[in-house]
Specification:
By secondary structure, the chain is α+β, with helices and mostly antiparallel strands. The protein has 9 helices and 13 strands.
């Protein structure tokens, strides 16, 4: 049935313009009124050709709109496969994620995120590719594919980041060859203006958090009604323009205790402005969302999205990705301490000592 419909649609798309053209030619050649030079005849002739032209323009417009809708459906399906829905719970962590597009008609953006349980802990990536459309979607595919493999293969978070950096460089070289096939030469920096901000997090069984940040905003820690950045260390440059340093030491970010949440986001959230040019206050929106503690990641996400849309009158200037992780583990895994004893939960260990986050964060 589908094989019959396609040729039929093709025949209609060609037949209608042909019919409109044939109508105009037939009128001009065969209609006696078209041969007259009087004012009335000229008005009628003009009306006929105007109707034919309007019909052709309408037909072409409808065809282009159909092709555009089809392209958007394909792009949206591709992105939904790449940014697959995250499970609501991952290894004792409650998870929620959302995307907002700056263009209501656009379904393809450059935001990426993923949460994966590995033998090395729960590993999370949040990134923002410069640009939009299919080129950005190709970069997202390259980075997510690399992360999903490297997160399981590499015990060290720095090696995961290097795998992402190599995947990005390889993707840009291949894209340059496709865009400039006659060149025949692979440049060292194929797309100089292309870059990706990337944040990698690793959470072990005790809730300890380690991070590598390449030009991305630090997440916010939501503890009760307190909201603060997870870390304040200077990030590395974004991936793409500059090589990674030889030493990739992770940033210790303390522990994510039971009941605490992390909000990862792309810079479109804090760069959003209202009609007066005022920036959106993400910490204030988080604090307000946590007023009725405890709140689930879905509640936090809905509250932030509503506040953001209200601030921008429903029209954010840039794409926004949001990811909330909440530690809801009943008890942390047992871990061996230097004295050889076994500590209990992370909450119990933290109660007898200085809060690890206060001492670990740079």
């Amino acid at each position: 049935m589908l094989g019959i419909r396609r040729p039929l649609r093709r025949a209609l798309s060609l037949g209608l313009p042909t019919a409109w053209g044939a109508t105009a030619i037939t009128y001009k050649l065969a209609c006696p009124l078209a041969q007259q030079d009087g004012l009335g005849a000229r008005i009628v002739t003009s009306a006929v050709f105007f109707a034919v032209g309007t019909g052709l323009i309408h037909h072409v417009r409808q065809r282009l709109l159909r092709e555009l809708r089809q392209a958007r459906r394909v792009a949206g399906a591709a992105q939904s496969v790449l940014l697959r829905p995250l499970p609501p719970r991952v290894d004792g962590l409650d998870v929620a994620a959302a995307r907002l597009s700056a263009d209501r008609g656009a379904t393809v953006g450059g935001d990426l995120y993923e949460v994966i349980v590995t033998e090395h802990g729960v590993r999370v990536v949040m990134g923002d590719v410069r640009g939009h459309g299919l080129p950005a979607l190709g970069t997202v595919a390259a980075l997510l594919g690399s992360f999903r493999e490297a997160a399981h293969d590499e015990p060290d978070l720095g090696r995961v980041l290097r795998r992402l950096d190599r995947a990005l460089a390889r993707h840009l070289r291949e894209r340059h060859r496709e865009e400039h096939p006659a060149n025949g030469r692979t440049p060292d920096h194929p797309v100089a203006e292309e870059f990706v901000t990337v944040l990698l997090l690793e959470l072990d069984g005790d809730g300890e958090v380690r991070a590598l940040n390449c030009g991305h905003p630090w997440p916010y820690l939501l503890s009760g009604t307190d909201v603060e950045p997870l870390a304040r260390a200077d990030p590395l440059p974004p991936l793409g323009p500059f090589p990674l340093p030889a030493d990739l030491a992770t940033t210790p970010c303390g522990h994510l205790r039971r009941g605490e949440s992390l909000l990862l986001y792309t810079d479109g959230a804090e760069d959003a402005r209202d009609h007066r040019g005022r920036f959106f206050s993400l910490p204030a929106a988080l604090a307000k969302a946590a007023h009725d503690h405890p709140v689930s990641p879905q509640q936090v996400l809905c509250a932030v999205v509503r506040a953001l849309l209200r601030h921008t009158s429903g029209r954010p200037a840039d794409d926004v990705a949001l990811l909330v992780l909440r530690n809801d583990r009943a008890r942390a895994h047992l871990s061996r301490v230097p004295g050889g004893d076994l500590s209990g939960s992370a909450e119990g260990a933290g109660a007898a000592t200085t809060h690890p986050r206060r001492t670990a964060r740079p």
